Hints:
It is a single chain. With 258 residues, the chain is mainly alpha-helical. It has one domain (6-255). 74% of the residues lie in helices and 2% in strands. Strand 1 (113-115) and strand 2 form a beta hairpin. Helix 6 (167-208) runs antiparallel to helix 8 (237-255). The mean pLDDT is 75.
Amino acid sequence: MLVFTDAEIGTLLGTFLWPLFRIMGFFLASPVIGSNFVPVRVRLILAVAVSLVVTPTLPPLPAIPALSLSLFLVVLQQILIGVALGFFLQMLFQVFIILGQLIAMQMGLGFASMVDPTNGISVAILSTFYLMFVVFLFVLFDGHLVMIEVIADSFVQIPISTAGVDNDFYFRIISTISWVFSSALLLALPALTALLITNFAFGIMTRAAPQMNIFALGFPVALMFGLFIIWLSLGNFQDVAATVFAEMFVRMRSLMAP
Length: 258
């Protein structure tokens, strides 16, 4: 008859369950895989499959007694790490959502909104266009495979332990928000500058001919000119998206660096 101690039971369960909790938290908060249009059952099956592949490659795990306070703290810690990494990667797509919002407000499309199918919230229709385009490019560039590689490497960079995570880990996640806004503003700057010049031209026209109905003329012209600028910018959008993707994954790897 086999007899197991509490520590042995905790180690056997933790060998599979601790990586599973981190991977499940990552898939719930990450883009594409964690989107609303991906069923929860599919995400759970994918998390279990990745856990089965990752578990044999893990470094030695600590021995924690079963049903102890330390066990629950480790489980909570793994969920928080997975959600934090998923949230960090979610900022990548927020760059293009903010990009669409900035351009839409400047060209007069800020009132036109629709439900974002990935997050279930209302955003500007231009942001939805950019988001669908970026999701397609993300899958095309094998971003979903890089996501799995990142979560697998996280067990080496941030091993499972009872010591906790350094506070710099969460501070670097928060500091990345400034990079999101600066990147979105940098990408939107050409279109914003062109539309700003258009608005200046309409202001000069209003001063020169006050009887002109600037509201009836300015809105369609700004709208058509904004669509023309967007059409011109789509020529190198793939290269821009690839650059943003590369920068984000570099930031994510530096996030996990000790």
